[in-house]
Every structure is written in C-alpha cells, then in structure tokens.
Amino acid sequence: MVNITGKVLRILPLRELETAAGAKKVIDIIIADTLDYRRLSLWGEKAELVLRGDIKAGDVLRIENASEHRMNGGEKRANAGKYTTINRLPVNVTALSRTVALNLTVLAVARPEKGQVCIAGIEGENGDWIRPQGVYEHDVFRHGEEYFKNLCITKIYVDKWRGRHARKEDRFFIYGEGVTREQNEAEKRDFLERNADNSVDAVFKAGRSLGLIKPRISHVYEEKPRKKGKSHEVYIRFNFRDSSGRIYRRWSCRCGDFYKTWNDLKSRHRWTYGWRMLRYLKKNDTYLAIGLTYSDYGADRLEYGAYPMIVGVHVVRK
Q1: Is 38 part of a structural domain of the chain?
Q2: What is the mean pLDDT of residues 184-194?
Q3: Is the confidence at residue 72, as pLDDT, over 70?
C-alpha cells in the first residue's frame, strides 16, 4: 500500500471494465508533486467522485492505502479501491516544478478520432520529433483556449511511451501548460525552411515516422469513404511530387486546421473551392508534415510498413 499527495493535472475519460465481480467504472487521473507524477486508477465509488465533480483537475489530494503495481515496461501504476481514502487539501502544489519540460513547436494537430487527438512537433533546439500519446480533446481545448496550436511553442511534460508497437517519436503525455509563444511570420518561415526534409524517402527510410517536406502539389480533393454508415464523413486527399521528383497520390490529410480552411472556402465558393484551394497552395510556400500510422498487420507489402498520411499543412506567403 502507498500514500500519495499531489495535484490532479489531468482526468482521463471514463472506462467500463469487466471484472469477476461484474462491470466496474474506472477513471484514471494524472497526479503529481513537485518532482514526479503517477497514474492513478479510481475504481467504482472512487470513480463516482470524479463524475459528481468532487474531484477536479487542479485539486490537491491526499490519497491513503492505494495499491501499487508495476506494469510491463516498468511503469508504476496505483489503484484507489474500496479501502482507499481520498481527502482534498487546502494547499497548493507546484506540480512538476523540479522536472524538465519540453518546448514543442507544434506541426500537427489532427482531427479528433474517438475523443483522441494526434499531436506532433519538433522539440527545442535538438530538432527531435515528438509525438505525445494519450492526448484527448479536453487536453487540446480547455477553458475556451487552445493548448496546442500549429507553429506555436507549447510547454509539455512527457515520459517514455510504454504502449505496444511504439514508434521512435512516441512519448506518454503527462501534462501541457499551453502555448508559451506564438511565432511571427518570419520565424515560421525560418523554422519550416530549417527543418524541411529532402524527400519522403529521407524521412521514412531513415527509420522515422514523422517528417516535414516541401512538395509540388498537383491536386487536392475530397472523397467520401467507401464503408457503409460513414457517408457523412469526407476525407481530403493530396497528390504531390516531392523534391526527389517522385509522385505520390491519394495521401489522406488529417490536419484539423486545414479542414477548417477547406470547409470555410467551400461555404463561400461552392463550385470553385477545390480550384481556389489548389491555386492558394501553389501560389505560396506549402509544407506538409507527414507521418506513418501504426503498422496495419492485415496488409502485406506496405512500402514503409504502414500507411503514410499528411498530419499538418503549413502555408507561408512568398
């Protein structure tokens, strides 16, 4: 048994798990002191404390008699069950103040899927790509504010990602403090030019699953999915040539901002929006943040071992 004192940084979505005693509600919270964090699972009636609003993000809690166990990969987790006591403390804790944070220049904020949002960007001065895992819509949009914005710098805390089939850039998302600085147009242009890769192959055949290219776009269009029951959804696809001269077709776009721009143009120019968008992308300098999905184990002979897609579209004026 362990006792934990810390500040609730995040509350993860409700899960319902089948146990020997029947279905149980479970809610995970990320709780931290000045030095470290812990992922704590609240079971049953303890989960109800969150659902009723008795436990909220920002609360400082004293948790006694929680059970601790170590997951595969070394991650320490704790559970609050029937015999655990939880009390709110009238004090403040400067969570993770003695922990190193990363300054992430965001290059991808994808459209939400099942409540989760794919975020990716380049960290600090090292030029390392980072993909925080386990980011939800309420982590991106909080209190009417965007905590991750394209080509802005966001302060985040991450840890090693211990999930299955981890990609090189994957990290577990602990907490984000939001946008610390917005770059001006000159800074955006300089950042994109410095971090652009030579080609698609230069990214994916070097063992990375994220990169940035400056292609020549030949076609951008929308397509409805072929699966029944999803006819209301529309996917935007790109055809382009990268700097090596190789042509790529039908790449799916997941960039949330680009969908907003596309739909706005569509609402104003119903019959010519596709042509207008292509002209806009060609007229200016357009960079694409590209990424690989998890490997699709039901498909053989995938060139890069997974499906490539466009996760960010960034346009700077010439």
Answers
A1: yes
A2: 96
A3: no
Q: Are residues 71 and 134 both part of a single domain?
A: no
pLDDT at 144: 84
Strands 37-43 and 15-19, by their bridges, are: unpaired
Look up the CATH number of the domain holding residue 295: 2.40.50
- Summarize pLDDT for 192-248 with one digit per residue, the tens: 999 999 999 999 999 999 999 999 999 999 987 766 655 567 899 999 999 999 999
Structural domain contains residue 239: yes
Token pair of 97 as six digits? 């103040």
* Residue 265 belongs to domain spanning: 196-316
Domain presence at residue 17: yes
pLDDT digits (tens, 9 = 90+) for 235-252: 999 999 999 999 999 999
pTM of the model: 0.92
Q: Give the separation between CA 266 and CA 261, rounded to whole angstroms.
A: 9
User: Would 42 be classed as within a structural domain?
Assistant: yes
Our count of domains for the chain comes to 3
DSSP 193-262: HHH--S-HHHHHTTT-SEEEE--EEEEEEEE--SSTT-TT--EEEEEEE-TTS-EEEEEEE-BHHHHHHH
**219 phi/psi in degrees, rounded to 5:** -160, 140
Evaluate whether 224 touches 236 at the Cβ level (below 8 Å).
Answer: no
Which phi and psi (to 5°) does residue 261 adopt? -65, -45
